[in-house]
Amino acid sequence: MEFQYNYYFIAYEKSTGIGAFEGVIEKGGGMMGMIHPEQGPNMMWNTKYGHMGGMMGGGRGMHGTYGGVPTAEMLVTEKRAEEIAQAYLTPYLPSSLVEDIETFYGYYTIHVLEEGKIYGMLSVNGYTGQLWYHSWHGTFIQMRELD
Length: 147
Hints:
By secondary structure, the chain is mostly beta strands. It has helices spanning 41-44, 78-89; strands at 2-3, 6-12, 19-26, 35-37, 65-66, 69-70, 96-104, 107-114, 117-125, 131-133, 140-142.
């Protein structure tokens, strides 16, 4: 996905089809071309590949794991995450809708639509229902799917 300030991508596990992590490619300034993990939920809520999960050596016995094993089966269902996201958005963007829910280890990331076009994205924690809006991308420009 191309946004005003960066490109956003998802890396999926081949064996499960589950989102492994979210990444960003910087578009401008002194960081142009730099590829790095996306900030926010990807680092803080990802129980397998994030800072609080397996990528940085944590994860054993943490909230969001069962017996130390990260799982994409969470207490907050995909349907409930969609409801939480829509309830948050409606007061601010009354004509907004949510779609394209992506499942990661510990959370979901969801596209926000305004008048049928991508407006932004947000994430919902799969254990607490906490919501985190991705405010750092800027205006959506375009999307392409690559294999």
